[in-house]
Amino acid sequence: xxxxxxxxxxxxRRPPFDRLTxxxxxxxxxxxxxxxWPRGTWLHEPGADxxxxxxxxxxxxxxxxxxxxxxxxxxxSDRAGACLVAQDTLVxxxxxxxxxxxxxxxxxxxSGEVGKLSTSLTSRKxxxxxxSRWDDPVYWALDLETGGLDPRRHGVVSVGMVPIRSGRIRxxxxxxxxxxxxxxxxxxxxxxxxxxxxxxxxxxxxxxxLPLICGRLSEGVLLVHCAMVxxxxxxRACAGEGLPxxxxxxxxTMRLLARxxxxxxxxxxxxxALAGARAHFGLPPHRSxxxxxxxxxxxxxFLMLVHRLKARKLHSLL
Length: 318
Known about the structure:
The structure is a single chain. Strands 1, 2, 3, 4, 5, 6, 7, 8, 9, 10, 11, 12 and 13 form a 13-stranded mixed sheet that branches. The longest helix has 18 residues, at 291-308. With 318 residues, this protein is α+β, with helices and mostly antiparallel strands. The chain is globular and about 60 Å long. Helix 8 (274-280) packs across helix 9 (291-308). The protein is 30% helix and 22% strand. The chain folds into two domains: 6-112, Jelly Rolls; 139-317, 2-Layer Sandwich (Nucleotidyltransferase, domain 5), CATH 3.30.420.
């Protein structure tokens, strides 16, 4: 297993994290989350919570006083006061569980929202609302790198998974593994993901990795970019190993991109490729064709699309 890759690489290049050892960075990763704050959200200080908000992309400003952009740390315990999300923002979050909440001055959307239900609601209404929210289930963003494109003839060579809980990417719970496939790999696939049979000699076999994948999928919703590629490989792998397919609900960010493009007055149709779609919406570049990096990239793109689509319920994303 390796780290969350993109967030950790971002952290280790910026103070004070650039002075940490690898062991200390690994400890940081255990508490690291990635949030998405949509433009127009107001954040206010709930008290000196000690959290660090490292801006990865976007802009947060305290109107008339100061601005935080990519690479800078917003610390509410420094008495930052009310802040406006001036551009859609990805932020890496470290520290205690308390977090800034959305103010009534702006839309209460995104990961900055408190999410507490009004105490005036009845228990039945509270339960109904919770079940219907898009951020109620756990999403497992998944990417597979394979030895080819035909699940009947080619196998899985690596898998990356990262969960989204309550609308926040939990980097410390990410899962990554190489896989030693029983099938041959095509030369084209090796040039894409840069893995060859020698790299995979010591990797576990699929029968050892697949239960770890299915156990996570049974927890919630499967999130992928292009379900027509990943899902057939997973289903065939389960059938081949005699494991029941967990039958998760599937959310496909490629389909969400198409849905967004069909909306009246929408901007030009974004590219369908993961890297192209992220660039279209101003998300930072990532390491393509690496299972962990692509899973993280899919999770970030998903959080952005949820807010672009103004999704409120899970069924609107399926």
